[in-house]
Specification:
Length: 244
Amino acid sequence: MAEPQAAQRVLVVMAHPDDGEFMCGAAIARLAREGHHIDYCLLTNGDCGTRDPAIKTRAQLAQIRQGEAQEAARRLGVTRDVIFLNYVDSMLQPTLDLRRDVTRVIRQTRPQIVITQDPTTFYHGQSYINHPDHRCVGEVTLGAIMPSASMRLIFPELYYDEGLEPHDVKELYLTNTTHTDRWLEVTPADLECQVAALKAHTSQISRDPAEWVEAGAKEEAAEARQHGHDFTYANGFKYFRFGR
Ligand SMILES: [Zn+2]
């Protein structure tokens, strides 16, 4: 973060209940530890994310995953209720309805800082194709930040019917990116929070994540050191600061 002195309002917007914990959980824990006000919005409730034949319906899984998401957020230090938009898992499309719904959340929570996913990430390396929902959450959130949240006459029902004033976001951090240009230093305690939060997703986690969480944060810190930062552990982001 740009080392903000005062408490900021931060909005994390992710596609699935475990995305934030997997991708940048230590950074979220750091922000919570520093006293920033964090709202956490999930576009889906993860109701398709299982290979377990004992889970028969999406409704059954949705209930489990909503509970896990709330507990995971609590373990990161988020004190507010997770906001669920309850779109169907794995079916996200960058529709105007979805952009309006994210715009509504931005105007309600009025964050200076938004954290979401990079919509340009189609794959990593030779063994990972990015989930289409991960690209979609980035696309709709970027469109919601600029221009929809700022303009009264875009989605006029939000202002005229719901009384939601326009809002300008100041900073944007994209996780799950191949264009990292900003690093947030994190501590071993932040990594422990990330691991504990990941373990709250008991329907998703089959092995202890501690090893790869630490290895990933070390790897990102090594990249940060090439850019002049003296970090041991870090989470990397593509960063924007809006001059308005
Ligand atoms: Zn996901």
